[in-house]
Amino acid sequence: MKMKTLSVALLILFISSSVYSQNRQRQNTATPPPVEERVKTTLEKITSELTLSKEQQESSKEIFTDFFTSIDRLRTSGGRPDRNKMDSISRKRDKEFEALLTAEQKKKYVKIKDELFSRPRRVNQ
């Protein structure tokens, strides 16, 4: 009888620790800032680096708003986002944005693009 009680107690302990552990992992995921804030930050950086005109800034705002909204939609759809879809959205952003730029601005954009849109990788501890 003692062995059966001990076994049940250990099973309950194991299950509860697993559930607690999974909940803590979800709590530790960072939520990105709102789309408007990310667009503003991106435009500030790009405008200063590329010296965009007012027309370029307005068009860029639409492009980056669409980009961040689409990426967020993929991330919140559940599970791990499809890398091909994310790459496709990024290529669309680049194509539309580069169409606004002069040749000199395109060269500068290629250099700063990785810095702007790459996410720091989380190191597993």
Which sequence of SSEs, written as H and E, runs from N to C?
HHHHH
Tally of extended strands? 0
What is the number of helical segments per DSSP (H or I, 4+ residues)?
A: 5
Average per-residue pLDDT, rounded, comes to 83
Radius of gyration: 23 Å
Low-confidence stretches: none
Strand content: under 5%
Summing up helix and strand content along with how strands pair, one would put the structural category as: mainly alpha
Helix content: over 70%
SSE layout and pairing:
Elements: H1 2-27, H2 35-50, H3 54-76, H4 83-100, H5 103-117
Helix pairs in contact: 2-3, 2-5, 3-4
Structure explained in plain terms:
- The longest helix has 26 residues, at 2-27.
- The protein has helices spanning 2-27, 35-50, 54-76, 83-100, 103-117.
- By secondary structure, it is mainly α.
- The protein is rod-shaped.
- It has a domain at 34-117.
- Helix 2 (35-50) runs antiparallel to helix 3 (54-76) and helix 2 crosses helix 5.
Characteristic key phrases:
125 residues; mainly alpha; 5 helices; 78% helix; rod-shaped
Short description:
The protein is mostly helical and 125 residues long. 78% of the residues lie in helices and 0% in strands.
